[in-house]
């Protein structure tokens, strides 16, 4: 796989024929030799054999069906704002697909949907000792409908969208790097950087009735906003009132 346009956007881009998890591998490589990995850097493959999702779940795809894209960033953003990078990635992918004519929307916290089906999932992980962040995105670009791993999934090929890896990765990186740069320029403030408004604008979740499953309770109500911490704000009605749910505490968010 050749990705000249994407490679021109970052300090280093490496394509692997096959790997267990691009996130795990990039964390391992950066930790072993940080100087060899200037940020932003990308490790990617279209044949990931042990892709990881959130909370021990897995991301699965047959060889050649899905792009696993891991991006190393070392933005100058306060630690408590780093959660915004994962929302920035979902928004960047959604905006990139929209720019290519695909009607994608972002489902909080980390999915990109086309017509209610998941085309992309994001998994952000911090490196030890504040050494940066690895943001992984799995993007089903080429899978035939019949080859999709779960009934809730879709792919760009199945939706009649573009499938060229270089075009897709370059469009995503352009949006992501611009968003992260804007965030760093204003010290990590999601409002002044325009990131919170961008996340709201592509959100498929705001305005919907949702059921949020947390470790010990289910929260039901209308998702009304994303707060300055990146949490989803759920209006449980006159008795329950408003409740903000953080990504780390949320097992699932389902539409009612
Ligand atoms: C995610 O987790 O959606 C995050 C996926 C991140 C994958 C990328 S690929 C590059 C990098 N390296 C990695 O090892 N991971 C990252 P979560 O929200 O927990 O969703 C996982 C759920 O999505 C699964 O339980 C399935 O229901 C569903 N799923 C699995 N594979 C899928 C696929 N190819 N397309 C759509 N949905 C899928």
UniProtKB/TrEMBL annotation:
Source species, domain of life: Bacteria
Please name the InterPro entries in this protein's record: aa-tRNA-synth_II/BPL/LPL (IPR045864), Biotin_CoA_COase_ligase (IPR004408), BPL_C (IPR003142), BPL_LPL_catalytic (IPR004143)
Identify the EC number(s).
6.3.4.15
EC top class, in one word? ligase
| Protein keywords | Biotin, Ligase
Limits of the BPL/LPL catalytic domain: 14-184
| UniProt cross-references to CDD domains, sorted A to Z | BPL (cd16442)
User: Which GO molecular function entries does the Swiss-Prot or TrEMBL record give?
Assistant: ligase activity
Q: List the NCBIfam families.
A: birA_ligase
Its protein name is biotin--[biotin carboxyl-carrier protein] ligase
